[in-house]
Design goal:
The protein is an alpha/beta fold. The N and C termini lie far apart (55 Å). The strands form two sheets. It has an eight-stranded mixed sheet with strand order 8-9-10-7-11-12-13-14. α4 packs parallel to α5 and α8 packs across α10. It has two domains: 151 residues, Rossmann fold (3-Layer(aba) Sandwich); 174 residues, 2-Layer Sandwich (Dihydrodipicolinate Reductase, domain 2). 31% of the residues lie in helices and 24% in strands. It binds nicotinamide-adenine-dinucleotide.
């Protein structure tokens, strides 16, 4: 007996996500999913997909035709960003489950339309915010929850590189730009890492190295009502990179340069800090700038290994459990709408002309 009842996928968009990412991830799900159809405006791409992943796959150049295919249970919407909302709603209306690539929408209005459709077809829509399952992000959240770093007051998130990029993701008219591209992932992380409603947002977008007209460098600062600051930067124009994560608490800090290791320095949780009062008078001569008490620092570097053992591709297993076993999917439409709402606020607040 087969251990799983495979969910039959119709893929829309045989590109970098649809050809080079999703099938590789699906292979890891050990039979939970199978591609039974694919659709692309270029038939050669469908031919190549079928040749590589399933020779009996049905091939379409018309999305509407693929939606009529009774074999397709779930449509994976992996076409360019401007079509995500419309294609997802169409697939829901055709009675399919839908896996919607990020960005789920380019405007808040669109996101709200998608939300309305998801309410009409409950349990059918799944948002591909796959970086929610990034091991390093999850490990850091576990360390924050453990309390060893104390009260977290600031987090820096970086995704930096330098690329003279020239594809549609650099063109405004095609829905490109770093904010639509990497933005949904890191804004989603930011909103969760804030652990509080957003009080203030500041943003700046720039085009640096990419050759299109859309931004390839962005800086966003979120301040939470809890006083925590998230400082995020995504750049295709930064020739020297910074650590991907830096987390600062009032008893210690951690850094991950590369998402493989976590370097931590924190005061031993056993140490109770003395109740020291600040003194107005001038310190005695020859005392220097020393700490008034000895701090028992713990310094260590550990591999990234969240206790959940999660990986970005686990989003597929979560989707399988939701569809076949009625388990709640961990990413909600309201969270997706919040990401689009802040993406729009960041864009408008930056003054970057689009
Ligand atoms: N979640 C992630 O980690 C992740 C990673 C990469 C890309 N993405 C998202 O996936 C989407 C696609 O990105 P990409 O880099 O794969 O783009 P791409 O250009 O490589 O692929 C898009 C494909 O869609 C096809 N296409 C275009 N219009 C179509 C239509 N109307 N009907 C059918 N096919 C059509 C194109 O021919 C192309 O093959 C983007 O929105 C991007 O944000 C997500």
């Amino acid at each position: 007996m087969k251990p799983f009842n495979p969910i039959k996928i119709g893929l829309a968009g045989v590109g970098r996500a649809g050809y080079s990412m999703q099938p590789i991830e699906v292979e890891k799900t050990e039979g939970r999913f199978e591609f039974v159809a694919c659709c692309d405006t270029e038939m050669e791409r469908c031919d190549k997909f079928a040749e590589k992943f399933n020779k009996s796959c049905n091939k379409y150049t018309s999305y509407d035709e693929m939606l009529k295919d009774p074999e397709v249970e779930l449509v994976s919407v992996a076409v360019r960003s401007p079509e995500h909302t419309e294609y997802s709603i169409k697939a829901l209306q055709a009675g399919k489950y839908v896996f919607c690539e990020k960005p789920i929408a380019l405007t808040l209005d669109e996101a709200l339309k998608l939300k309305a459709a998801s309410k009409k077809y409950p349990g059918k829509l799944f948002l591909r915010h796959n970086r929610r399952f990034e091991p390093c992000y999850n490990h850091i959240r576990e360390i924050m929850d453990s309390g060893i770093l104390g009260n977290i007051f600031q987090i820096r998130l970086r995704r930096n590189s330098y690329q003279r990029r020239d594809d549609w993701q650099t063109l405004i008219e095609c829905g490109g730009g770093m904010l639509n591209n990497w933005g949904p992932h890191i804004i989603d992380h930011s909103l969760h890492l804030l652990e509080s409603p957003v009080k203030k947002v500041w943003s700046r977008l720039r085009r640096v190295a990419a050759v299109g007209d859309a931004e390839d460098h962005l800086t966003v600062i979120f301040e939470g009502e809890n006083g925590r600051l998230i400082d995020m930067e995504i750049s295709g124009g930064a020739a020297i990179t910074e650590p991907i994560y830096q987390v600062y608490g009032d008893r210690g800090a951690l850094v991950s340069q590369d998402e493989k290791e976590l370097k931590m320095r924190y005061i031993d949780p056993e140490q109770k800090l003395q109740d020291i009062k600040a003194k107005k008078e001038s310190p005695p001569l020859d005392t220097g700038f020393r700490n008034p008490e000895k701090l028992d620092w713990i310094e260590k570097t550990i591999p990234v290994e969240p206790s959940s053992k999660c990986e970005t591709w686990h989003i597929w297993n979560h989707m399988y459990d939701a569809i076949r076993n009625g388990v709640t999917f961990p990413i909600t439409i309201d969270e997706g709408v919040e990401v689009v709402k802040y993406t729009e606020m960041v864009r408008k607040g930056s003054g970057f002309e689009r």
